[in-house]
Amino acid sequence: MTKIKGAIFVTATIGLLLSVSYLRAGDIVGALAVPKPDHAVVYIEKVPGTFHGGNAKMDQRSKVFVPYVLPVVAGATVEFHNSDNLQHNVLGVGADKFNLGSYSQGMARSNTFNKLGEIAILCNIHPEMGAYILVLQNPYFSLLDGGGKFHIADVPPGDYVIKAWYQDKTKQQNVKVPAKGNITISF
Ligand SMILES: [Cu+2]
To answer: From ligand 1's centre to the CA of 50, what distance in Å?
Structure first.
């Protein structure tokens, strides 16, 4: 009985290890040496297939848009909140254009992003305020952790262009994602 239990346990463990390594195949990891890691996004430019955007949120707090850069997949609706005890405006310029007007604390207005590219988010009441929304073709993107590291998980095998966006500037390189294993990229 002990032997059978042991065999089942070993089989289950091997199965678990195989499935874990399978799930992690094609992860792209790396780092970006930038002074403000929370101002950067690393993403794959194009992945075959059609992807749909989940919704997201951008806040205005102490006259700052939070987060500074928000990556979304095309089709996503972003809710812009005002958490300050004063009026803010939200407008976008760049790959797409919109103006949500001005509104006060506790209110939110939203915009749907269908055009790929970079949109600067501004407030016409406070010129010092600024943020970015990156409308991407696919969900294979990563923000950086506090140490500047990124991790794009479960990328389908293939040849891609990977881009590192930092404060309105972009660097890119080619990457080959194998069927199995992680790849490390440094910009
Ligand atoms: Cu404002």
So the answer is: 36
